[in-house]
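Revision sheet: structure tokens.
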Amino acid sequence: MKKKMTVCFCGLTVLFGLAVAVFMFAGRTRALRFVSQMGPGINLGNTLDATGLREYRPNADDLEYETYWGNPKADAETFLAMKKAGFGTVRIPVTWEDHLDASYQISEVWMDRVQEVVDMALAADLYVIIDLHHEEWLDLRTERAQEIRTEFAVVWEQIAGRFRDYDETLLFEAMNEPRLRNSEVEWTSGTEELRAMVNELNAVFVETVRSSGGGNRKRYLLICPYAGNSETEAMQGLIIPEDGRLIVSVHMYTPYSFCQKEDGDKEWDDAGTRERVRQAFFEMNRLFVERHVPVILTEFGCVDKGNTKERLAWTSYYMEQSRRYGIWCIWWDCGGYALLDRENKSWRFPEIVEELTDEQK
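Predicted:
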């Protein structure tokens, strides 16, 4: 009798395991469909993510941060211009650290403004992503791991609580480029220990948001590898929590001298660069999409150096890979990368915008 009960228990365990696997597969397939509807994206960069003002003006108001890095306040017309141009998604980077008190409580004034901007973007019929962006305290120093984890959970608990009843068109992104700052591994794939720390924070993020209930039980969440790096080693080191509504976020500015250095190369088109970009998309597909985990390139772009023809060709190649693998890309839009003139709501480089938003190619 004891033997039969053991066999029965083992059989139930196997069936339960299969049921969980089927449930996860169905959830992840649904996530792929969801992301496919989001459309091409653009970042509202250097706006709600501005930081450092109180180092120079200790009595500065929370709301002064929004224009500190030279951009106008976000308004409804900004998001309507994005939608009209053909974008389906806006990522709104948010830095919270200058708006926290000693117990990590977010300023009500700042939280209200973030919500107001989110509401304007949603009213324009855009999918919206908000994150934790230039957080200096999120420096991956292992000796501070517990302190970082605590602050991270407290901050996300408040954000999740404020947006608890929003629907799935609002997405949360755990972190922006988490890394060990000012180290020789800052912009690499990291170390095994650092990748483990990122995985732990991703898990804390998912648990914190899900446990807040309401719409957060089904909200789509973005997690990233070390530094948001698209190199194979970094992406291989990312552990996906057991959750059917997760999206992987990576960044790619390849090649660096062309994309990010304002005094760098004005040309990019060589066999080596094409292969690096193609291989990165291939690996995103192999490691995640083929396992039914969607990927979004939440940052990419190249600065203007009076080389519009080259920038257009570079963008076209990225979008070719994007369409091939079903990986949406979100342009980093501010400063030298800026496509949208936010003052008059006109597009500086309409040919690049057309390339980004043309889903029929």
